[in-house]
Amino acid sequence: MSAAEACPCGRARSYRACCGALHAGAPAPDPESLMRSRYSAFVRGNAAYLLSTWHASTRPLTLALDDPPPRWLGLEIKRTWRIDDHHAGVEFVARFRHGGGSAVRQHERSRFVLEAGRWFYLDGAG
């Protein structure tokens, strides 16, 4: 598989078979998959997907992505946990670089909620 076909989320799958399916409307099977698909949406500049997977109680009205976009360098899932049948968390580190600047690490513990059979991003803390 070429780098252009690989999924940005870091799984050894093509974009089409991985996050691309979620971006096309398939529900994420678990919070980690949703987190990975959201990372891929940032990489691909897909603000509509980011908003659609953000829980209505915390979702902003609009989302302006950086222009020019950062260069995304990778995603590392540190751990996942279930709180109950409808709540879970994912701890991750995403790395990116703006222009020729130093790489930045975004370390977050995100919370997710399951509603009507779909996982949604709720919020995150650094």
TrEMBL record:
Among Pfam families, the record links this protein to: SEC-C (PF02810), YchJ_M-like (PF17775)
Per its UniProt record, what InterPro entries does this chain match? NTF2-like_dom_sf, SEC_C_motif, YchJ-like, YchJ-like_M
Leader sequence range is: none
Record Gene3D superfamilies: 3.10.450.50
- Where does the YchJ-like middle NTF2-like domain start and stop, copy by copy? 30-124
| Family listed | Belongs to the UPF0225 family.
Task: Output this protein's name.
Answer: UPF0225 protein M0G41_09355
What is the species listed in this Swiss-Prot or TrEMBL entry?
Pseudomarimonas salicorniae
